[in-house]
Design brief:
The complex is a heterotrimer of chains A (199), B (764) and C (330).
Chain A (H helix, E strand, L loop, with lengths): L12 H8 L6 E7 L2 E7 L5 H8 L18 E4 L2 E4 L12 E3 L8 H12 L9 H16 L19 H7 L10 H19 L1
Chain B lengths: L2 H10 L26 H5 L15 E7 L5 E7 L1 H5 L3 E6 L32 E2 L5 E7 L2 H9 L2 E6 L6 H4 L15 E4 L2 H7 L2 E9 L11 E7 L3 E6 L4 H12 L6 E4 L15 H13 L3 E4 L2 H7 L6 E9 L5 E12 L11 H5 L5 E10 L13 H19 L3 H7 L17 H12 L11 E3 L2 E13 L6 E7 L4 E4 L9 H13 L6 E4 L16 H25 L14 E4 L2 E4 L6 E3 H8 L3 E7 L5 H4 L3 E13 L5 E11 L6 H21 L4 E2 L4 E2 L18 E5 L22 H13 L15
Parallel strand pairs in B: 1-12, 10-11, 14-15, 19-20, 26-29
Antiparallel strand pairs in B: 1-5, 2-4, 2-6, 3-5, 7-15, 8-13, 9-10, 9-12, 13-14, 16-17, 17-25, 18-19, 18-24, 21-22, 22-23, 25-26, 27-28
Helix pairs in contact in B: 11-19, 14-15, 18-19
Chain C lengths: L4 E4 L3 H9 L4 E4 L5 H6 L7 E4 L8 E3 L5 E4 L4 H6 L1 H6 L1 H9 L3 H6 L2 H6 L5 H4 L41 H7 L3 E6 L2 E6 H4 L18 E7 L7 E6 L10 E10 L2 E10 L6 E2 L1 H7 L6 H11 L11 H17 L7
Parallel strand pairs in C: 1-3, 2-3
Antiparallel strand pairs in C: 4-5, 5-8, 6-7, 6-8, 9-10, 10-11, 11-12
Helix pairs in contact in C: 5-9, 11-12, 12-13
The chains are: A alpha+beta (199), B alpha+beta (764), C alpha+beta (330).
Chain lengths: 199, 764, 330
C-alpha cells in the first residue's frame, strides 16, 4: 500500500524551463511513447531517459548511473532493449518507445510483472522497471535466435534458455539488493508460461 | 563504560522478563510468505522515488566538489556559471545562509543524523577530496550541470594524511566503540597463545568499499513560508533528518517534514545526513523555489562515505582437541577527525566463541577522507572475514573439520558480556546446513577436486549479527468501517516493511488482512528508529503491540458502556480482539464488531498511540542471529577466475515473519558478500585522497551471472525475549560470506588469500 | 554537457558536408561512448552530426567471398549474422563478450572502433592525463594501473583500448573503409589505431572530417577461431586480457595462425612475432609456449598489472592450444 503523501502538482516547471531556453537551441522531436504520439521541443543534450522522466512525466524508467553501467534505464525502442541514458532523445525521431508504464498492454510484460511479484524478484524496486523491460527485450532476442557469450558457437540458432543463458543475457541489469535469484525465477517462469501460451 | 552505566547494566539483569507475547507461536498471517503489498507499484513503475516528484517551478541543482583533500578554497570564480543560460543562482560558502552544523549520529541511542560534525558550506575549509564547495541552481538539469562545469576553484592545499600504511603505527585506541569498551582482556591471551599446541596468527585486510545503491542519493526541498520546510530525501532516517534540518536552519520543532515513501536501496549509505541534503535545502531557501538535487553516480562517491578499509590480526591458540586457549582479534580502521567512527570489527569475536583467554582491541588512524559510515553489517561483515578465515586455518592446522572445530568452542553464555544467550542454535544451524549442502565426506586436503579446467572446493563460515531493538512509537487509527491504519515514520528500502507490519497488525488486532493498511515514509508520523542495525521491523512490531494493547483498552472502555450490555463486564483480560470484533474469551458469542462499538459510542474513529519500552532485554541477554554459510567455488586453473557454483545459508534468525521477504533479505546480504569477497574495491589514490573508480563500470558489484541459486534455510525458532520472537535479517547475510568464499578457495586451490577482494591475480 | 548543435544527416555525402562546415564537430552513431564522454566533458564538440539514419548498416557478402560490415551495423546484428558465426566465429564471440545486450543493440561498428580508453585518470578531470591535456602528464603510471597496458606503452600514456570486437578484427586482417573531404580510402585495420608514443591524444589515423563507412573482412575461413575474455567479474566488465585466435593445422604443422591480444595495449595487439614463430612449426605446446614467451618478452608491467604478463601467456596457450587440439593446454 503506497503511503499517503501530498500528491505532486502537475509539473509545470518544464514548460517554464523551455521558455527560458533560446529557441534556436531547442529542437522538435516526434516519437511514439507507449503507443501514443508525443511531440516535444528539447535541448539537444536531453537524454532519452530525461525526456521520459522529466518531459513526459514517465518516471518509471530509472536513472541509476547515467553512464550505461547499470541498466536501470532500459527501455524498448522499436522492440529492442536499449539504455535510454546513453541515447540523446533527438536520435529517436519517429521511433517507437515502450517504457515500463507501457508494458501493462504487452503480453510478455504483463506475465513478467506478475512473475516478479510472485517470485519476489525485487526488493527496493529501483532496478525493477529496467529488469522487466530488459527481460521483455531479452526474451524477444532469444526468440529471434540472437546468441550470447555462453551460447555454444556450434549452434547457429539460439539454444535452450537455461540458467547460464538467462543470467548472462540479464547481466546488463545490476541489482544491488541482490534479488538475482528471484529475478531469474520470475523470468524463467514467464518464459515457460509464454511458451505454453504460444503453443 | 561509566560506573553508573555498568550499574544499570547489572541491575537490568535482575529485572523480570517481559510477559511472553501471546502471538509468539501463532500461525495466522504471521509466518506466511505473502507477496509484497508494494509489489504492483514497483513492477509497474508507479512507485515514485525522491527525484521523481516535480512540483511547480522546480529548479535543478548541480554540485561542484573539491579536488583537494585538505586546505582551503582560496578563490572561487562563479561568473561564467552565473551568466550561463538558465542559471538561477550559484551558492558557495560566501553566500550560503548561516547554518548550524547538524547533530552527529550517536549509534547507541540512535539519535542524531550527521556522520560528521562539520558545518556545511559555512567556510572556506576543505576536509576531503570530494567535499561539495558550490552548487548551481538552474531551470534544467542540463543547464545546471553545464554551469557547474564552468566554475573554477583555486585551492590552497595543506599537507594531507592519506596513507593508511604510512600512518597506522600512529593509530590510537578510541574512547569507545558504539558505547562498548574499545579493548577487552580475559586472562593472559599472549601467554596462552605462545603455549598453545596449535597456533594461527595472521593479518587480514579488507579495502574501502562503497554502498552503491542503484538509486543515487537525492533531495528535493520545498519551503513554504520562511520557516516551514518539506524535504523529499532518499533516507533511512526520517525522524533524525527532520530534527536535524530543524536544528541546522534554526526552525521550530515540527517545522520540517521529511518524506521518503520509497528508497532505492540504502545499505547504510542513506542512514546519515550528507552535505548535499542540507545544501539542497539551503539553495531552495535562497532561490525561493523548490530545488531538486540528485547526485550523479560519481558524486555518490564524493559526497557520501563508504566503508573504511581495515587491517586485522587474528591469533588463535588451541589445544590439540581444538578448544581455544587464546583468541586475539585486533584491528585498525581509518576515520577522519570530523567523523571519529571506529567500525566495530571486533564485535563478532566478543560474542561468538568460548576461549580460555581473550583479547579484543581496536585502533583508528586519522585520515583526511569523507566520513566513513555504516555499510551493511558494519563491523560484523569485515570482522567475520578475519575471524572465520583464521578459524578455518586453525581447522587445517589441527586436521579437524571446520564445523566440528566451531562446535567444540560453542559457548554456553556470552564470553565477554557474561550474559545468557536469549536464543542461540548455531550448532543446529550448522548441522542442518551441512546435511542439506552435502558437507560430510569433504576432504581435509586442499586442491584435490577437479572438473576439467576447474578446481573445485567447499568452504564454510559463521554468520553473526546482533538482534537489536530500539524504542519506537506507533499509531493505530480505527475507522468507522472497521478498517485500521497503522502509522509510523518507517522506511522502505526493500525489506518489505509495509507487508510484514500489516501481517503483524492484522493478526494482533484479529482483522482480515485486507482491512489493515500501513502508512509510513513521513517524518511527521510517530517516531520510528532509523532503518539500520536490522532493527526496524521488530522495533515497530513492539510499538504496534503496545498500541494494540492501548486500542484494546479503549475498545473495552467503550464496549462496557454500549447499549445492550453484551460486553458490560468486559475487561482487557477477559476479552480478545478477533474476527473483526471484541469478544469474551470464555464465551465468544458475546461479541461486538469494532464498527458497532464505534457506532454505539457515537465516534467515527478511534486513534491511539503507544511507545515500546527501552530494550532492557538486551542488557539481560545476549540477543543475536547466527548462521552457517556454505559455498562451493570453481577456480579456472590457468587464470584464477572464480565462479561461485553453489551457496547454502542456514540461519538461526528467530521466528520468520515472512519467509518470502526474509529469504530475499538473506540472499541480498550474501550477494553483497560475494561482491565484498571477489569483486569490490574502492580505489583511493593516496597521492590525492581521491577515489579513482567512482562509477558502476569500474567499481564492480556482482552481476546476475556471478550469483548462483542461493539455498536458504531458516530454523524459524522463536526467541521469547524479542517481539514476536523475531530478529532482524537485513544484514546477517553478508556476514561470514567472504570467509566462506576465502575458505572454499583455499580448499580448491591450496592458496590462502587474506586480503580482499580475491581477484584472479591473487590466485594465479 | 556543453550546449551543441544537433544535425541529422541523410546521406554520407551530406554527413561529410555538415562536419566539414563545422569546426569541432563529431559524428554521432549509437552514442554509447560519445554521449558518456560528452557528459564527462572529456569530449566537447560544438556540433553533433547524427549518422544513425545513414544507409550503411548492411552486412553483406562480397563477391570475393569476404564480408562487408557497414559502419552503422549494430553490434548485435554483426554478432548474430549467420556468416559471421559460421566463418568468423571469433568475431561473433568477441562482440558477445562485450558490454551488455542493451549496449550491443545500440553500439555501431564504426563507434566500436572509435571508443576511447577506460583509464581512471582519463575519466577524472582532476587527474593529469596526456590525452585530455597534451603535456599534462600521466597519473596512471604511478597510480592505479591494474587495467593498463603491458605492451607498446610510452612514458606519456599506458592506457589500453577497451574494445573486444577490435581484437578480433585485428586478428582477421580486416580493412577499414573511410570517406572524407579528400574522397575514399582504405586502410588495414592494424594501422587504424595508434600506439601512444608522445601523442596519446591522437588515437586513430582518421583525418579530421573523415567518416568510417565500413569494415571489410577478407575471404577467410576462420571457422577454427575463438575469442576468450578474462575479466574481474563474469560479465559486463572490460577485459583484463583477451585473446582472439585462429589456426589451421596440416599434418601436425601449423599452416596458418592468427593471434591478437586485447586489454594489453593502446590498440588491439596483433601478435606478429608469435605468429611468425608458430607458422610452419610443429603444433605442440612447447612451440606454443616458446612463441608466446617471445611475443611477450618486451612486455613491461607496472605496479598493479604485472599479473597480465603471465595471464596473457596462459590465455594464449589455452586458446591456441585448445584450437590445436593439444591436451593439457594450461
Amino acid at each position: 500500500m503506497t503511503p499517503r503523501v501530498p500528491d505532486a502538482a502537475e509539473p509545470q516547471g518544464t514548460a517554464a524551463a523551455q521558455s527560458k531556453i533560446h529557441d534556436s537551441l531547442a529542437l522538435p522531436l516526434s516519437l511514439r511513447v507507449n503507443g501514443a504520439r508525443r511531440e516535444l521541443r528539447l535541448d539537444p543534450r536531453t537524454s532519452l531517459l530525461d525526456a521520459l522522466r522529466d518531459h513526459l512525466q514517465l518516471s518509471g524508467t530509472k536513472k541509476g548511473c547515467d553512464q550505461g553501467a547499470c541498466g536501470a534505464c532500459t527501455v524498448l525502442v522499436n522492440g529492442q532493449r536499449v539504455l535510454s541514458c546513453l541515447s540523446l532523445a533527438l536520435q529517436h525521431e519517429g521511433d517507437d518507445v515502450t517504457t515500463i508504464e507501457g508494458l501493462v498492454n504487452d503480453e510478455a510484460g504483463h506475465v513478467l510483472q506478475a512473475g516478479f511479484i510472485e517470485a519476489d524478484g525485487f526488493q527496493c524496486g529501483y532496478c525493477t522497471p529496467g529488469q522487466i523491460c530488459s527481460a521483455v527485450g531479452m526474451l524477444h532476442e532469444f526468440g529471434q535466435g540472437v546468441p550470447s557469450a555462453v551460447t555454444p558457437i556450434a549452434s547457429l540458432s539460439a539454444t535452450t534458455l537455461n540458467d547460464e543463458e538467462l543470467k548472462e543475457r540479464m547481466s546488463g541489469n545490476l541489482c544491488r539488493c541482490g534479488a538475482y535469484v528471484g529475478i531469474c525465477d520470475a523470468i524463467r517462469t514467464a518464459h515457460e508460461r509464454l511458451g505454453r501460451q504460444a503453443r | 563504560m561509566s560506573v553508573i552505566g555498568k550499574a544499570v547494566e547489572i541491575a537490568a539483569r535482575y529485572l523480570p522478563d517481559a510477559a511472553a507475547d501471546p502471538l509468539l507461536e501463532s500461525r495466522g498471517y504471521i509466518g506466511q510468505p505473502r507477496n509484497r503489498v508494494d509489489g504492483p507499484s514497483k513492477v509497474t513503475g508507479a512507485a515514485r522515488f525522491t527525484a521523481e516528484y516535480a512540483p511547480d517551478s522546480l529548479a535543478h541543482a548541480a554540485l561542484v566538489c573539491s579536488q583537494i583533500a585538505s586546505g582551503r578554497v582560496a578563490a572561487i570564480d562563479t561568473t561564467a556559471a552565473e551568466a550561463a543560460p538558465g542559471v538561477v543562482l550559484v551558492v558557495t560558502h560566501a553566500n550560503a545562509p548561516r547554518l548550524k552544523a547538524p547533530d552527529m549520529l550517536d549509534p547507541p541511542t540512535g539519535k542524531g543524523a550527521a556522520p560528521s560534525d562539520l558545518p556545511i558550506l559555512q567556510d572556506d575549509r576543505v576536509y576531503w577530496n570530494g567535499q561539495p564547495v558550490a552548487v548551481v541552481i538552474a531551470e534544467t538539469l542540463e543547464q545546471a550541470a553545464h554551469a557547474a562545469s564552468l566554475i573554477t576553484v583555486d585551492y590552497a592545499a595543506d599537507t594531507s594524511r592519506l596513507s593508511f600504511d604510512a600512518l597506522k603505527s600512529a593509530a590510537e585506541v578510541p574512547k569507545d566503540i558504539l558505547g562498548e569498551p574499545p579493548e577487552i582482556t580475559i586472562g593472559d591471551p599472549d601467554k596462552a597463545l605462545a603455549d598453545a599446541s596449535a597456533r594461527v596468527d595472521e593479518i587480514y585486510r579488507t579495502p574501502w568499499y562503497n554502498h552503491n545503491a542503484i538509486e543515487p542519493h537525492a533531495t528535493m526541498a520545498i519551503w513554504s513560508d520562511a520557516d516551514r520546510l518539506t524535504v523529499y530525501d532518499s533516507t533511512q532516517s526520517l525522524k533524525r533528518f527532520s530534527g536535524s534540518f530543524e536544528r541546522v536552519f534554526g526552525l521550530a520543532s515540527g517545522a520540517v517534514t521529511v518524506l521518503a515513501p520509497f528508497v532505492g536501496g540504502g545499505f547504510g549509505g542513506k542512514a546519515a545526513l550528507w552535505h548535499h541534503s542540507v545544501i539542497c535545502a539551503a539553495a531552495a531557501r535562497l532561490a525561493g523555489r523548490p530545488v531538486r538535487l540528485a547526485l550523479t553516480r560519481e558524486q555518490v562517491y564524493r559526497d557520501v562515505g563508504g566503508r573504511t578499509l581495515a587491517e586485522q590480526r587474528v591469533a588463535l591458540g588451541a589445544h590439540g582437541d581444538g578448544r581455544l586457549a587464546a583468541l586475539i582479534h585486533t584491528g585498525i580502521t581509518a576515520t577522519p577527525d570530523h567523523a571519529r567512527y571506529a567500525e566495530q570489527l571486533t564485535f563478532p569475536a566478543r560474542h561468538l566463541y568460548a576461549s580460555e583467554n581473550l583479547f579484543v582491541g581496536q585502533k583508528v588512524v586519522s585520515l583526511d577522507t569523507v566520513a566513513n559510515t555504516w555499510m551493511r553489517a558494519p563491523g560484523e561483515s569485515i570482522g567475520t572475514f578475519a575471524l572465520e578465515s583464521a578459524l578455518d586455518e586453525l581447522a587445517y592446522a589441527l586436521q579437524l573439520d571446520p564445523i566440528e572445530l566451531r562446535r567444540r568452542n560453542e559457548p554456553d553464555k556470552d564470553p565477554t558480556k557474561d550474559t545468557p544467550y536469549s536464543s542461540r542454535h548455531l550448532v543446529e544451524a550448522y548441522a542442518r546446513g551441512a546435511e542439506r549442502f552435502g558437507w560430510s565426506g569433504r576432504s581435509l586436503t586442499p586442491r584435490t577436486q577437479r572438473d576439467g579446467e576447474w578446481l573445485v572446493g567447499q568452504g564454510v563460515a559463521t554468520a553473526y549479527y546482533p538482534a537489536l531493538r530500539l524504542p519506537a512509537t506507533a499509531r493505530l487509527t480505527l475507522h468507522g468501517d472497521g478498517t485500521v491504519e497503522v502509522s509510523a515514520a518507517a522506511h522502505e528500502m526493500g525489506m518489505g516493511t509495509a507487508t510484514v507490519q500489516i501481517q503483524h497488525a492484522a493478526e494482533r488486532l484479529g482483522l482480515l488482512i485486507e482491512r489493515v493498511s500501513f502508512r509510513y515514509g513521513d517524518s511527521s508520523l510517530p517516531d520510528s528508529p532509523l532503518a539500520g542495525g536490522s532493527c526496524q521491523t521488530i522495533s515497530i512490531v513492539a510499538a504496534v503491540h503496545a498500541a494494540a494493547d492501548r486500542l484494546h483498552q479503549e475498545l473495552v472502555r467503550l464496549a462496557r458502556r454500549a447499549d445492550g450490555g453484551i460486553l458490560a463486564d468486559a475487561t482487557v483480560t477477559n476479552t480478545q480482539l478477533r474476527d473483526g470484533g471484541l469478544s469474551r474469551v470464555d464465551d465468544p458469542a458475546k461479541t461486538m464488531s469494532l464498527e458497532s462499538i464505534l457506532r454505539a459510542a457515537g465516534q467515527d474513529q478511534i486513534e491511539v498511540e503507544a511507545s515500546s519500552s527501552m530494550p532492557r532485554e538486551s542488557l539481560k541477554y545476549s540477543i543475536a542471529s547466527y548462521g552457517a554459510q556454505f559455498c562451493e567455488v570453481r577456480v579456472r586453473e590457468d587464470s584464477g577466475e572464480v565462479r561461485i557454483a553453489r551457496w547454502l545459508g542456514s540461519f538461526d534468525c528467530g521466528r520468520v515473519l515472512n519467509p518470502k521477504t526474509a529469504a530475499s533479505q538473506l540472499r541480498g546480504g550474501i550477494v553483497m558478500g560475494i561482491g565484498m569477497a571477489l569483486t569490490e574495491e574502492t580505489l583511493f589514490d593516496e597521492r590525492s585522497g581521491r577515489i579513482m573508480n567512482p562509477s558502476l563500470s569500474e567499481y564492480h558489484i556482482p552481476v546476475n551471472l556471478d550469483v548462483p541459486y542461493i539455498d536458504i534455510l531458516m530454523n524459524d525458532v522463536a526467541d521469547e525475549h524479542t517481539p514476536l520472537g523475531a530478529h532482524g535479517v537485513g544484514e546477517i547475510g553478508i556476514t561470514g560470506a567472504a570467509a566462506a568464499i576465502a575458505n572454499a578457495l583455499y580448499h580448491a586451490t591450496g592458496k590462502r588469500v587474506r586480503s580482499l577482494p580475491i581477484t584472479l591475480d591473487k590466485l594465479l | 554537457m556543453k550546449p551543441f548543435e544537433y544535425v541529422r544527416a541523410a546521406s554520407t555525402a551530406s554527413a561529410l558536408d555538415e562536419v566539414a562546415h563545422r569546426p569541432n564537430s563529431k559524428f554521432l552513431g549509437g552514442g554509447t561512448n560519445l554521449v558518456d564522454l560528452m557528459r564527462e566533458n572529456i569530449e566537447q564538440p560544438d556540433a553533433l552530426v547524427d549518422i544513425t539514419r545513414l544507409p550503411f548498416s548492411e552486412i553483406r557478402e562480397r563477391e570475393d567471398g569476404g564480408l562487408s560490415l557497414g559502419a552503422g551495423a549494430r553490434n548485435t546484428a554483426v554478432a548474430s549474422h549467420p556468416v559471421v558465426r559460421a566463418r568468423y566465429p571469433m568475431l561473433s564471440e568477441a562482440i558477445l563478450c562485450g558490454a551488455s545486450g542493451q549496449i550491443r543493440n545500440m553500439a555501431t561498428v564504426g563507434g566500436n572502433l572509435m571508443q576511447r580508453t577506460r583509464c581512471f585518470y582519463f575519466y577524472d578531470e582532476a587527474a593529469r592525463c596526456n590525452k585530455r591535456q597534451p603535456g599534462a602528464g600521466c597519473d596512471a603510471i604511478e597510480g592505479f594501473n591494474r587495467i593498463h597496458a603491458i605492451l607498446g606503452a610510452s612514458d606519456a600514456c599506458i592506457a589500453t583500448h577497451p574494445s573486444d570486437m577490435c581484437v578480433a578484427l585485428a586478428a582477421l586482417d580486416a580493412t577499414v573503409q573511410v570517406s572524407g573531404p579528400q574522397g575514399e580510402r582504405t586502410m588495414p585495420f592494424l594501422e587504424f589505431h595508434r600506439l601512444p608514443g608522445d601523442t596519446p591524444h591522437i588515437e586513430t589515423e582518421l583525418k579530421p572530417g573523415e567518416l568510417i563507412t565500413s569494415v571489410e573482412l577478407p575471404p577467410l575461413d576462420a571457422a577454427g577461431s575463438r575469442y576468450r575474455k578474462i575479466r574481474d567479474r563474469s560479465s559486463y566488465a572490460f577485459a583484463l586480457v583477451s585473446v582472439a585466435a585462429a589456426v589451421s593445422i596440416r599434418d601436425g604443422i601449423v599452416a596458418d595462425v592468427r593471434l591478437a591480444l586485447g586489454g594489453v595495449a593502446h590498440k588491439p595487439w596483433r601478435a606478429l612475432e608469435a605468429e611468425r614463430l608458430l607458422r610452419h612449426a610443429p603444433a605442440s605446446l612447447e612451440h606454443l609456449r616458446f612463441a608466446v614467451d617471445a611475443e611477450l618478452a618486451a612486455a613491461k608491467s607496472f605496479v598493479h598489472n604485472h599479473f597480465k604478463i603471465e595471464l596473457a601467456k596462459r590465455a594464449v596457450v589455452s586458446v591456441l592450444g585448445g584450437l590445436m587440439g593439444l591436451e593439457s593446454a594450461r
